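User: Here's a protein and a ligand (HT7). What would the complex look like?
Assistant: Let me lay out the input and then the predicted complex.
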Amino acid sequence: PSAIYLKDYQVPSHLIDKTHLHFILHPTKTRVSSDLTIRKNPDADTKSNELILHGQDIDLQSVSIDGRQLDDRDYQLEAECLRIANVPEQFVLSVVGLIAPADNTSLEGLYKSQSMYCTQCEAEGFRKITYFLDRPDVLSEFTTTVVADKTEFPVLLSNGNPIKSGSLDDNMHFVTWHDPFPKPAYLFALVGGDLECIQDSFTTTSGRAIDLKIYVEEKDLDKCDHAMASLKSSMRWDEDVYGREYDLDIFMIVAVDDFNMGAMENKGLNIFNTSCVLAKAETTTDAGFQRVEAVVAHEYFHNWSGNRVTCRDWFQLSLKEGFTVFRDAEFSADMGSRTVKRVEDAKLLRAMQFAEDAGPLAHPVQPASFIEISNFYTLTVYEKGAEVVRMIHTLLGAEAFRQGSDLYFERNDGKAATIEDFVSSMEEAGGRDLSKFMSWYHQAGTPKLAVTADYNSSSREYALTFNQTCPTTPECDSEDKKPYLIPVAMGLLGSNGPLSLVPETDVDFSLSKNDTHCVLELTQPQHRVVFKDINAPPVPSLMRGFSAPVRLQFDYSPDDLITLMTQDDDGFTRWDACQQLCVSVIHEVEASLQQGKEPSVDSRLSDAARALITNQNLDPAMVALMLTLPSEGYLAEIATTANIDTIHSAREIVRNHLAASLKTEFAERFDSLPYFPEYEANAVQIAVRSLKNCCLGYLVATADAVWLERAMTQYRTATNMTDQSAALSVLALSPDSKAVDYSVSALSEFYQQWQSEALVVNQWFSVQAMQPGEEAVDRIRSLMQHEAFNINNPNKVRALIGAFANNNPVCFHNSDGSGYRLLAEVVKKLNATNPQIAARMLGPLTKWRKYDSKRQELMQAELNSIKQTVGLSKDVFEVISKSLA
Ligand code: HT7
Ligand code: ZN
């Protein structure tokens, strides 16, 4: 397989103004007839009259031009395209092909999920349906007729508005849909099934009534209300915050069980993984409810950022994804707690995206090349892409950002745009040049920002020196990297609180909050910023709100961190200081373990934790976040060579120490927090449950029989899944032998209770995948044989294999290599059935450079053995070859 380069982009040779599709659904012989109104692209460079259409796995039946049937001397059929020489300037191309949705396990194109037909066309799935110019810069007006058996498939959906329907012979029926908005083929969708729906309506600001429908299997009808409420909130929010109204008369969501990602923003017909749309208190955790809200919003927001303005080519993927993640993050912040959302996003970025950016698959937010685009739906394109948009928002301010967004939508409506088009609208609205900012889009790697301070008591000056560097990444050496424009939001804390800032510097900056807060705009490898009139050395509060996705280095003492934790007025910085204190305490314990010394836990951490637990004035959600120790994944990420076993032991020692020394405080707080008999997924309730279950975790860690029993009682009496699954997890994941009986009973009762709820069974798989113990790999193997497991369902694979490889580091990295072998076997199987998921599951093995030489060898051996697989997909080939390079 070879790479495709952004620099080679060429406009399409032809344009397809209208697309008429006709489907007769059948499991192995779906007949797809297309009539495409095609003309030569006036902007095309080529003089050639050849038309090359993408197409894959289609049994071609006939090809005609303007009604004249072509024979096979007029065209050339290749594995992935159809070439027709000498086409006229303008013509109608009619093609008939047969496809087999029931055999399509890749879940791209038209496939069957249980009894339902559905499609997934992003990025390049449409070419598995019919021959087409399957590229995002070819926009066409689609009219789609779907024909199927009336009894088996009463519901037939596609994009746009329904314009005709009726009965046909042999119990068949049809529905015709018309989408007036020209769109690229990746936004096409079709659904056929025996579905029920909940309906609602939304009136836009301009007074148009929009029909809203969520289609699910009948048994799931009681789990749609939260998605519907989220949809309506999203529609209102996009009008209020971005001035964006919905444009069709109907907006539909369909839930499917078998889906490679979370959801898909097809025009007017979003298709969702059931895990991202269904929610009910009894079966869904608070995190699940929040995910539904966020994904519904994300897909809805794509109607403008992605659909009305789409991407010119797939190198621009972050144009729609980074911007839309930023939009959904702001929406979630407005719906719940802004600080909690910010902390959660920063946590994800630092533990996962920073690791991606430091590994062999690191790539810029706007990649310069790829082999398989499906491999580029990454944390870098999505989450770092959103951080980049957030920095533009910080640099311009909310008002100019909104003007930039309006200009971008106005200028590019109905077009396929680039990241440069987005930035230039922002430049124009903000009245500033952002060329120095573009390193964020063009360079991979996480910049390091090292900050040093010196204080001069005679001049009363406090100076900060900022040094930025960026490590070498696959596409560029460290020395060749351009500096980044880094917005540093900051303040200084004196002994009586925040200090007024009087900066003296050549760095551009803006002051706010009575001059106690500023945003510095670093542009050079090194800057010095002097703050005047400072009476004593302050504690700097840096990167407030996580103002840039960098690794900040400042030599804080534990006391400085406690000052920040307790006194800074920025919630993110308070949380971050607490994390850093935890990291330094865990590192001290780890060093003692490695030196064979008796470890001791710095009492300043337990004192700080006590102050947090007993403080009734803080947001309980923030207290829970601050009391949650950094994950083993994050601790591995910040280590040069990750010693999985000592990281795990050191973290456990600190956790057990906090549990033992603060048992009374945890117990009192646990008992004092309310229980809400009427479940609601609102910020107040979610916050309380998160702190309560955090306390329960520490209390079970004491292995006190009373608390094991209380956890079991909570497990059995909980009336919502958040409390039930929290109790299950703390019992099942406890390493203490006293918890074993409880854990066994709870796991067995859980399956008995929930075996008919596929999404709940996935939680059951995940908990077991994360359980400690030498027998973990055998347990996973036997769960793979369980009646509820199905390797063709991506949710099941993620729940069991993904949870094991990503969230059970001690067992996955067992030095006998058994965890690696298991993952490699699964990847080989998936390579043949679902290459996208195979490539995604490979992630943990690609990080082999992080570990000791013995593990490195074992991991590389598995990668090499996968590489030898006959029929290796492009997806897996790209990930393996880059990770071994
Ligand atoms: N835009 C959607 C991407 C997507 C996707 C990509 C590759 C393979 C399967 C997929 N399903 C959905 C999702 C989103 O970002 O909204
Ligand atoms: Zn998206």
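Summary: The mean pLDDT is 98.
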